[in-house]
Amino acid sequence: MPAPIFNRRVSAIEESITLAVTAKASEMKSKGIDVVSMSAGEPDFDTPDHIKYAAIKAITEGFTKYTPVGGTMELRKAVAEKFARENGLTYAANQTLVSIGGKHSCYLAVAALVDDGDEVLIPAPYWVSYPDMVLLAGGKPVIMETSTATGLKITPDQLRKAITPKTKMIIINSPSNPSGAVYTKDELIALGDVLKGTGVFVLSDEIYEHLIYEGEHHSIAAVVPELHEQTIVANGVAKAYAMTGWRIGYAAGPKSVIGAMAKIQSQQTSNAVSISQKATLAALTGPQDHLVPWKEEYRTRRNYIVERLNAIPGVLCPKPAGAFYVFPDVSSFYGKSFGGRVIEDSVALTDYLLEEFHVACVPGSGFGAPRHIRLSYATSMAAITKAMDRIEKGLTALS
Ligand SMILES: Cc1ncc(COP(=O)(O)O)c(C=O)c1O
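A: This is the predicted complex of the input protein with pyridoxal-5'-phosphate.
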């Protein structure tokens, strides 16, 4: 049988590089190799107990059937209340949608709005999935380059120049995966001033909002009220509640857009898991104090890792304000070699670190920033210390 010819949109996309690196590291581990993984964007903390109990209760009480496609009304109300309480954003419950992870929420927003040939502005470095989501919808990702001079953030001038009659959407992700950059209120207002009145939709992915170590989180539609009707806010419980496996994300936005997203979901996946919805209700409405020690721990790890990286000659690692990643510029090592092995780029460097020194990091090329690599510090201090020793050894061995 000849090789299948795949849908052209599927052929245009790549497997998520983060998941690919994580899989390669797991495969090495399964062979008994002591690999330290700095690749996964997954909190090493456990889901808080009160959330787990809510799920157990849901099971024992038989809350195990289909729910309405967009989520239970009690959860959608809780989502609307969360946006009002934490973000200063007003939505009715029917302007919210519960989906199967923050990734799904983002994908649905793109799928609902982006048509063949539409341009979507994506500031680089970007989360690996955004360009591929746009390609799957038939749109054209327009990558906006940034530099360390602006903290890896786009400027209003740059945005003004990037908007064309074909621009349908911009994706803003603050705090950012992979850079950890956080847009200030003033920066969001300045970007909003360019966007308001343009009809360009904003997809604001705020999944790391609770993981900020300097400054504070602002939602663009809250600080630029004129954008409320052209913004879809996507969020989820994976990062703030260590609920990656429960697969719940949510979004809010104009009723018509949320309706279109729900329509796709109704034909694609139906509702998110009923039990996870109960757990999410407990997460959003219950105590939030787990975040205090988690954030302190992340901050300690971040400070340590940044100090260790900057102590290696040739590494430039700004201190990220949020999320749980560091994103050092390692381009000074490109062109160097070790035992005949030449390090041409970020992929070659992360392969080298994994194969020779057994530490898994993600190449920056997957995030549209090939001078960099991404290291996640959502792992124990013991693992981080070990990883840093190995990275230091690996990078200093290059000449
Ligand atoms: C920027 C960003 N958005 C969304 C997500 C999606 O998270 P999930 O689908 O696990 O809720 C992630 C996960 O890594 C992320 O980094």
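The domain at 8-46+290-396 is CATH 3.90.1150.10 (Aspartate Aminotransferase, domain 1). The mean pLDDT is 96.
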